[in-house]
């Protein structure tokens, strides 16, 4: 968020998780202030922000439209917002095994439904960022989707990201109850860097992930 503190403009980042805020502070430049706080109760002055950048966050609000309305109160007239969301389209992890990919993705969704006592309709806000902006009365709403594409051999940073964020944190042991024994065993092989079938070292590894950015602005006549 770009905020006017008197005569000096600064960038402010907000995250609810203390670990995320600490990590951001480690890498943030000197002119960026990182705050560990609930975005919905953040102590920001109304109409003090020029631009809000919010990625993979709005869908976690209990009421995403109300969350976007709250964000709009921080914006000056004609201030702009960008809501980003990954994976509105199904990701492709295993180009050679669409069935295992499908059951793995279904297992992830079922895990989160069980963990947070949700039904399938509760997850639709992930797909609805355009509707969220329009429901919050933003103007000039637009969206664009790009594909993030990675092909073997991947660089070390990409391998670390996919291994830690997807294969260990998103999949891992938590999916065991939601997959057959054979499917879970195959998934473990594909996620094991020491196994000869490790997915990221296969010559046919081809990963596709979508990223959608929806933008809007507040009215110039808003009081």
Describe this structure in words.
The chain has a four-stranded mixed β-sheet. It has a three-stranded mixed β-sheet with strand order 1-2-3. Helix content is 32%, strand content 27%. Mean pLDDT is 90; it is low at 1-7. It has one domain (45-217). Helix 2 (64-74) packs across helix 4. The protein starts with a strand and ends in a 6-residue tail after the last strand. By secondary structure, the protein is α/β, with parallel strands linked by helices. The radius of gyration is 20 Å and the shape is elongated.
Task: Give, in order, the helices and strands.
Answer: EEHEEHEHHEHHE
Over all CA atoms, what is the radius of gyration? 20 Å
Which residue ranges are poorly predicted, with pLDDT under 50 across at least 5 consecutive positions? 1-7
The counted number of beta strands is 7
Principal-axes shape call:
elongated
- State the domain count: 1
Distance between the termini: 21 Å
Care to give the gist of this entry?
With 223 residues, this protein is of the alpha/beta class. Helices cover 32% and strands 27% of the residues.
Secondary structure blueprint with pairings:
Layout: E1 2-5, E2 8-15, H1 18-27, E3 32-36, E4 49-55, H2 64-74, E5 75-86, H3 98-115, H4 129-135, E6 139-151, H5 156-171, H6 181-190, E7 206-217
Parallel strand pairs: 2-3, 4-5
Antiparallel strand pairs: 1-2, 5-7, 6-7
Helix pairs in contact: 2-4
